Amino acid sequence: MQRLSGDSLFKVFSKVIAFTALMIVLLWLLFKVSGILLVFILAMVIALIVNAPVSWLEKRNIKRAWASTIVFSCIVLVIGLISWLIIPKIAKQLQTLINNLPDYISQINVQLNSWLKNYPGLAKEITSSGNNLSRIIPNASLIITKAGNISIYIAGTIFLFILFICIIAYAVARPAPLLEIYFSLFNIDKREKAEKALLHTSTMLIGWIKANLIGGTIEAILTTIFLTIMGVPGAWVWGALVIFAAMIPNLGFYIMTLPPTLVAFSVGPYTALWVLIFFIAMSELMSDLVMPRLLSSKMKIHPVSLLFMLLVMGVAFGLVGVFLTVPVTAIIKAYYEAFFQSEQENDPLLEERIDAVIYHHAE
Question: Rounded CA gap, 79 and 281, in Å?
């Protein structure tokens, strides 16, 4: 065996060290820009969804620039109208809630004392905790009042949001250059599969939007009816909020539940309790039974896959990752089927093997 000379050994170690350093730098950069990459992926997901109505209009002899303008104008008008109707109402309800929190807590303490009159030690401890909370409330109100001090953060967020919208707008208005870059990443013999994967992804994402609109509309109607019966102020406002909260898996539960439950305290503690129970029951039924079936029928994705990806994306990337759970699952499924599953040989005994595993202990 030929031995390496001192110079050759030094060159090998130098290359290994340089490669290791390069990988560390690349991983560090990837970690730093992971949030930006997720936002970019979100922009591309929205662009694929918005492309559907734009292309529909373009096929009907409307120039793409005008079609994009029409679709984006409709989206802006809808969002603006909903914001004009909802945001002032929410702000008013929350302000009322903040002002009345001390009274609500006193009512809760009185009710708890009546429930726990046979346990004086526990009642005293709970009452003490309630009094401490009442002393904290003015500080919380002061913090909310001084929220204007975060104007720099708000300005930065608005700037990033404008860039986000611009990426979507340019991607929809001029998709051809981006698609050229996309196909250039694949060899010519792989481009047909890349085309099928992207088309499948687009179909599933549109199915995702449709499923959320159906599920969100069902939840909004149920919420509006129940809150109206319970006499909670702004029932239709909270119903409209549910439609948007339904787009965010699991985390949307807190967005749709907390504001109306807190506002329900203005009616009474028992009302707030029933509202909370209603949202928990509705969320469990929708998330465990209705939404997985809607998503699986529209996207043909197994509910277990969605729940697994929700855990992974939530732990890895937080809020943005949670929102991207379904799109990322759809992308993985589309490219797996196009590039890997299509190359596997068909197993004529696959169904028999599955039945054998499922019903092994049933005999």
Answer: 29
The pLDDT value given to residue 147? 47
With tokens 């009452």, the residue in question is: 127
CA–CA gap between residue 181 and residue 175 (Å, rounded):
10
Q: Report how far residue 231's alpha carbon sits from residue 247's, in angstroms, rounded to the nearest whole number.
A: 27
Pick the residue with more confidence: 42 or 99?
A: 42
89 burial type by CB count under 10 A (0-12 exposed, 13-18 middle, 19+ buried): middle
Report yes or no: 217 and 241 within 8 Å, Cβ to Cβ. Answer: no
How crowded is the C-beta side of 14, counted as CA atoms within 13 Å?
A: 6
Angle, helices 175-184/151-173, rounded to nearest 10 degrees:
80
Mean pLDDT of all residues in 185-196: 89
Question: Rounded CA gap, 50 and 60, in Å?
Answer: 16
CB contact at 8 A, 275 and 264: yes
Rounded CA separation 20/11 (Å): 14
Q: Are 220 and 280 in contact (CB under 8 A)?
A: no
The pair of three-digit structure tokens given for residue 276, joined into one six-digit string:
């909370």
Rounded to whole angstroms, the Cα distance separating 210 from 52 reads 12
pLDDT in tens, 122-148: 555 555 554 544 444 444 444 445 544
CB 332 within 8 A of CB 321: no
